[in-house]
Each structure stands twice: as C-alpha cells, then as structure tokens.
Amino acid sequence: MPEFTSDLVMHEVVGPLTTAEAREEALRCYYCYDAPCIRGCPTAIDIPVFIKHIATGHLLGAARTILDANPLGATCARICPTEALCEGACVRGQDSRPVAIGRLQRTATDAAMAGEVPDLPEFATAGHGRVAVVGAGPSGLSAASYLRRLGYEVDVFEERPAGGGLDTYGIVSFREPVAVSLWEVERAAKMGVQFHYGVRAGRDVSWDALREGWDAVVLAVGLGRVPRLGIGGEELPGVYDALELVEASKTGPLEAIRLFGTVAVVGAGNTAVDAATLAKRLGADRVIILYRRGEEAMPAYAYEYAFAKQEGIEYRWWTRPLAITGASRVEGIRVVSTRPASGQARSDRQAQLEDVADSVQDIPVSAVIRAVGQEKPGQIWSALGVLVREGRVVVDSETFETSLTGVYAIGDGLARPGEATVVQGVADGKRCAFAVHHRLTTGRED
Amino acid sequence: MADLSVNFAGIKSPNPFWLASGPLTNTGYQVAKAFDEGWGGAVWKTVGEPVVNVSSRLGGLDYGGRRMMGLNNIELISDRSLEDNLREIAQVKRRFPDQAVVVSVMVESRPEAWADVLHQIEDTGADGVEMNFGCPHGMSERGMGSIIGQVPDYTCQITGYAKSFTKLPVIVKLTPNVTDIRNPARSAVLGGADALSLINTINSVMGIDLDTWRPLPHVDGRGSHGGYCGPAVKPIALHMVSSIAQDEGVGVPISGIGGIETWRDAVEFLLLGASTVQVCTAAMHYGFRIVREMTDGLNDYLNARGMARVGELTGGALNRLGDWNDLNLSYQVVARIDQQKCVGCNLCYIACDDGGHQCIDLIPGQKVPLVREADCVGCNLCSLVCPVPGCIDMVPIETGRPAKTWRGLA
After folding, report:
1. So what's the ipTM on this one?
2. Which residue of B has its CA nearest to A59?
3. A437 and A408 in contact (C-beta within 8 Å)?
4. Where are the alpha helices (DSSP H) in B218-274?
5. How far from the centroid of its chain's Cα atoms is residue A443's Cα?
6. Nearest to B297 among A23, A33, A56 (CB)
C-alpha cells in the first residue's frame, strides 16, 4: 500500500452531522412510498428505509441498506451531486427544504467505517466462474463487489499501486479523505475480490490472455488525463493538469507543490472548481477561472459554483487563452475576449464563438491549471477492436456488452462529456454484474 | 442470523410480527400482500354478521409536527359477507402455509351462533381464532365486543363456548377499558383460552373542531366515542401486558398490541412477557413494508446480544417490574449537567423551579445552570425537558444508607 498525504489544510469542508442533527433530519423524512428520491438515485438506494433506520437509532441497518445497493455509499455520501439527484427529487423541497440525504448517508457509512460493518443480504442464485475486471475505480469496484457477492472468482487488474481510481486519486481531500475510498477498496478485498496492482491490461497481461483465461472481462478503465490546450507555452514549469495536481496533493508532500501569487484555471466544470479551491489551499493568493463561454453555459453544478465563490475564486467569463508566457517558467497568460457568433445562443454549450477584436490582454500569473475535461481511452478500444462511435465504446444499453462477446464496458468511458459521475459508474457496475451473471448462468443475453 | 420463528400456543409463524385485526386485514388482497412483504402472521378483520360501516371513520392526533401519534376509529367489524371472508381466508392460507392466519370473530352470545361460525372458520384451514371481546364502540351497544370483555363472567362463559366448538387455538383479545386487566384475563383463562392478546383500543374522543363544533371524526355532523390506538397508547399496553404476564392466574402466551411502530417497541413488549406482537396503526400509516426494518432490526439486536432465538427475549425484563412497595428507598440519583453540551436554554431551571423541587440555580454571567445536589430529589424532570441528548444525566450517588423498602419498614 503506497503512502498517502494527510495535511490539516486539507481537512473536510463539510463535517459530519451531530447525533442530534442526524436524528432531527431523519425525522423530517416523510418515508414516501415509491419515493422520488430512490428514482433520483442511479443506484436506487432505498433511501426512506435507511433514514428510518437512522431515526430508530439503528445505524447498522442503515449502513446495510446503503451498502447493499451501493458498495461505494461512503464516497457517494460525500461527493454525489445530491442536489441534482436524490435531494433534488425529495418531496420536502416543495413544502420546506429537502431532507439532507447525502449527509444522513454519511452518518450511516461513517458508523460502518468506525467498525460497525453490516453483513449484506445473500442473493438467491449463485454463479460460479471467473471474471476479470480491468480498473479498480468506482465502476470496477462496484462490478467486482456484486460479482463476488454473486459467487464469482473476481480478479481486478489495476495499473496504479492502490484501488479506488478517481475517488482515491482524483477527488480533493477536503471533499473526500482518501481513507474513505481505501476503506471501500478494503471491503471489496475482504469479500474476496483479488486485486492485482501495478498491472496494466494490454501491456502486462494481454487482452487475448484476459479473454481466454476468464469467463467474462469487464472494462472499467475510466478516462485519461486532461487534454492539452494546444497553445504556446504549455511546456513551461508551472503548467499543471488539474487531475495530476489533485493526485500530487494526495500522494506527495504538499511542500513539493506549493503555489503562490495569482493562479489561472482554464475551464469551468466541477474539476476546475476542485483545482481552484485546491490551489488556494496550496498557497495561491488569488485564483482566476477562465472560461471561454458565459456563466449560463458553465458545466459545474450550482453548489460547486457557490462553493467556489464562497472560497473567493474569481471568474472571468467569455475569455479564451491564447498562450502561456514566461522565460523559464510561467509568468503570465495571454487571453482574448470571446462572444457567440451571430445567431448563436449565449447559453448553448455548443455555440460557435468568435474573438472580440482588439481584446487581447496579458494576465500575470505564476501557474496555469488545465481543467478542460478528460481524454477518452481510445487506444484501449482500438487495441481490443471493439466498436466505437464518436470516440465512445458502443455497448448494449441493458447489459453493457461491447461488440465483442463476453467483453463489457462500464463507467466514465461511456458518459457524455461533463456527465460522468461516480454514482453512475457504480450503477453501471451493478447492472453489468447482474448481466454478466445472467449470461454465465443461462448462456443467454436476454 | 437469529431464529425469529415462534410457536404461539400451537400457532407457528416465521417471525413474531403479526398484523392486528383491523382495516388493514380486511381482504385477502391485503393479507397476501403483507405476507409477501414479510409479516409472520395476520389476524383477519373481525368476521361475524355483516354490519354497515359509517363514513368517515378515523381521527388522528398530531404532535409537534409528527402525524398520527394517536389514531381513533369508529369502524365496526367486517362489513363484507362471511362467505367472502371465509373464501379469501382459505385462499390465503393455501398460498401461505407457513404464515399464521388467525381469524378474529365476534357473534351474538348464543352457543349456536358460536358453533356455526367456528365450524366454518375451521374449514378454511386457519391456524387459530381470536375472540374479539374488546371493540369499544358500536358493537358493545349491541351486546358484543367490550361489553363481554368488561364482565369477567361473560368472558369466561363465551370463551367456554368457543373452546367447546373448536379444536383451533383460541386467543382472547382483551379490552383495556377496565379497572384491572387481570380480572378479565383470569376469566378468559378459566374459560379455556389458549392465549391472550392485548390491548384492544381505548375509549376516546379525538377532539372538537373549533369552527364547527363538530367532533373528530364526524358522521354528518355527529360523532361517537371511538377506539384509540397508535404510538400514544404504548405505555398503557406495556403496563397491561406486563401485569398479566406476571399474574399467576394467567400463565398463557401473550400477543402484545398497542402502538408498536419499530423493532424497538416490539422488543419492549417481548421483554415484558409477549411472545408475538401485533401491529396496526404503523402499518396503516406507512404500509406493510415496515416489517422489513422490523425483522432486520430485531435480528441485529439478537445477534448483537448473542441470542439465538427470539423466544429468549420473552419476559426477560419482567423481574424488574413489580410493586412500588419493593422499590429501594435508599437509592439516590442527582442531576448532572454536562458543561460542554449545555446550550443554555434554562428549561431545566424553570421546570425545576416551578414544577420540581427548586434545586437548580441560574448563575449570573454563566451559561450553564447549577444543580444544588444536596437538595436534588432525583425526580428526572430536568433531564426529561432538556432538549440536548445526553446533556443532563441522572447519576447515582452513594448515600451510605442501607437498602430498605416500604414493605420492609412495615
């Protein structure tokens, strides 16, 4: 197990509910039947039931309800966009404010992490066979956990030295401490999932070997690095990939990545907010988010935007970087103002843009952080020879099977740009596990 | 996984959670659905000569933003034909051989009437009958229900009829609308009852609408007293269950009823002598699905205590309840306020000063009130009004006095 960073400046922004708060909040739940919140959760956690368990002081039962439906319930309690999912659907939003479902879920999973780990219900049918899962991120962990519970021997191949994927390496510590993600990996290991770290599929174990040696192969490879901006000066010291910066803040000494002065972040999604608020904690005095479109087209969730503003992050809308400048390291960023081309809507994220004449400006900055999405794992798909459309692997919408029989793909790699979430990856992994089980027990796809 | 199954006076069920006789066990559809959700048994809505029910029928008591802390009803027994009920009972029993199907029954106090209905119930394959001697409204005005349960001789006599006409286990359901529940309980046992269930609902008037002066609920502007149930009645039920569980003249299995909403409530009834529990209001409020949390919670509770069978709980706390005369007069607790947890609301102060024994002081310039321990009688009031969990503890102190009871002094 590699070392991870713990540092006080990275302490969690949202704390746990007190016992009194949790009970009070749990009693606000109407315990709806066929509850909208359940339909709002991609993993369909029986939310009213787990909340009722909390109301009766039965945290073990609450954790069981959550973890039965979502093995990454502790992570999701912290990082799910609940405003857009369960809490957005909560009926109490109509007469008061929604029940704080995410924070209640944390109350239950915190209790489980503190030692009261529930045993999970057994499934009615048991399968037997071997399944390989490539990638130990959220969707891979989910698939592996369910396949293991369904009775399969599960081997997970993970390139990195630890599991958890994005949760372990890509979420800033002040939103989810790394211990939470590692606990979830440990739970899968305790169930009997075999993890093979430092093994890169396609290099250390061939795709053919995986397809021949295992009854099914589940690809949960996630997304790649942040793409380059394609402008001058990107090689200069002081230019960071947002995800690499987050990873460095979790795996190395913080002193090694101290920032200072003014820092620019390019992009206005959720990762940009993470990068910007992280930069503040790493020493930046001022952080400016540059976005080539306006506030109305910003891909970040409203609560992320609110968090960024609360942390004093500045935004410059309709601003496109032209070049990163500096002699031996970053000294500034040259930007130009943009506007929608004639006839294009300001709120349209696909709108054609044009530069505003005579609006080039140099902003002195000491660092530039790229947060403009993630690269798709195109090489893997071509190495495997699976059918790909618009850069995304094509899978059956029910079973997640690719164009290759017995090869499945799940997780962020399937998502449309800006729509990837951990909870959707977990839901994919769960559904895929049952589809694999169905195939291996019946030999049929239906 | 602990063993939750029970054998209640010869009636087997996979867990101790039964639905009580009421609107929620009115049809085969409901009972089958409940069994699918995991209920261990159900007592069918009381059958007999069909009645006409009124509209409206239920009234609720809310408290502090929580709905239906208490529920009252003026519904009578089943208004469906006996034939329909019996046919559906037989169908449900065939489909669910492992669940307990008990038929609540109430007919006129003639032996022939009881003989006839009991033979028909036997033919359905039901596991037992429950004699409804408890219904406090309407039926009692017609010489049935609680009018039987309130007269021990009648209770004994009618129970005897039933026993002489059926081999099925006979459960007698008792009304709480009596001065001492032990009298009808003993009479039922004397009459041959195999088991007792209690409590039925309590006489109640839910309220009056301040604008219209109509009672709640009302039927065309008029009301009638109805049967009260729901979480509010639990303490009354616990008292009655424990008092007959301890009575030497009783000695038969008890099915506990009254305000059970969670597995915790159920455990309390079991610890005070019940071996099954019956639920009505909570399932009417939230649906049959609540049984899943109840079995889950009960199972975890047993596992955590290393208990293999739910039956081990029955009567476990009975030896801690008894006469006031046996309480230790030398025992002394005093209130201790947690300095860190106190929010400074002063509710403990005013409660003690006005309604207690004037032993909490407000200290100028200080957030936390101060208990004068030497004057504290240990009444608990301050800890009951304190809104912060765990902030005021009642702590035993050493008095040096030897244990003594009123009985010992006498």
Report:
1. 0.81
2. B297
3. no
4. 234-245, 263-271
5. 33
6. A56
